[in-house]
Amino acid sequence: MTHSTDALFTPFKSEKLELKNRVVMAPMTRTYSPGNVPNDLNVAYYERRAKGDVGLIITEGTCIGHPAASGYPNVPFIYGDKALAGWKKVVDAVHAAGGKIAPQLWHVGSVRKEGIEPDPTVPGHGPSGMVSKGKKRCHEMTEQDIEDVINAFAQGAEDAKRIGFDAVEIHGAHGYLVDQFFWGDLNERTDKWGGDYVARTRFAVEIVKAIRARVGADFPIILRWSQWKQQDYAARLVVTPAELEAFLAPLTDAGVDIFHCSTRRFWEPEFEGSDLNLAGWTKKITGKPTITVGSVGLDGGFIDENAKGFANAAPASLDKLMDRLAHDEFDLVAVGRALIANPDWTKTVRDGAFDSLAAFDKAKLGELV
């Protein structure tokens, strides 16, 4: 490290959210919630990062109250008395440690396979029955299905606000349900829920509007979105800045407050002719605060191309990140694997103790510390 990290530790203030610094804990699925209820291990896990001075914690994906929302075992839910009581303990612990926290509201869509809890007979749901390009496997969503899912997202947000969360994030990335509506390879509908890349934003727009109606004007709504998909790392929803502007306009108008722009490597430019990354372009176009993410503080992308899973990585310089943050390319920085390996990553970086940072070992995914 040769650059100052001061920009990372300046307070953040937007119209609806104030944070003590620019560090965000990225949402990372950990599957440590048997019965789909957050437990004492989850409480301690998030509390430890809050004590480490993370400005905003975004939880692992937490499934909304729809039968096909869950795609993996032991993932926490954001509905039902027991799950909400478990999340209330997490929220209270994070607040007591001086942090702020938002749940990531999640529906996996066609990624779901039969046999997954809570009802193993329920198939995956998708906009047009597609699980990947050219492959139909799941239930094609009806108008009633779409209405039910929109209401489930809104109820999850309302309950999150009620138990004390500071914001909510909609998971609209990585080839899960909201993103499946965005993505032309999976959304072949010819009704009002399909169409071109702008028309395909309608599902997300209606979710944002429904959430806003439940939580009021002052509660922050974050949308996480991505070009890449777990089904296709090279996928792109838009290919030019003009297309990006048209894609983002209805989402901004619907009431998204912060865009969480998921990339696999934050330093990669989004379009030719500019060094701006996806978060940089999104901020430039919308004027909204953005969160950048993608291998922050590590020397390699987070996915092992061969194993298609988290990849080991060593600590790396933050100089490029600091340059971009100091020039207001984006507002907030989400840290993922580095915060699994180093719960005190924020304090360690602030104190300049870079030599003490541990590498990320994917074996740590089998632990919750």
From TrEMBL:
Any GO CC annotation of this UniProt entry: cytosol
Superkingdom to which the source organism belongs: Bacteria
GO MF assignments: FMN binding; oxidoreductase activity
Protein name as catalogued: NADH:flavin oxidoreductase
Domain NADH:flavin oxidoreductase/NADH oxidase N-terminal stretches: 8-352
Pfam hit, one: Oxidored_FMN
InterPro entries noted in UniProt: Aldolase_TIM (IPR013785), OxRdtase_FMN_N (IPR001155), Oye-like (IPR045247)
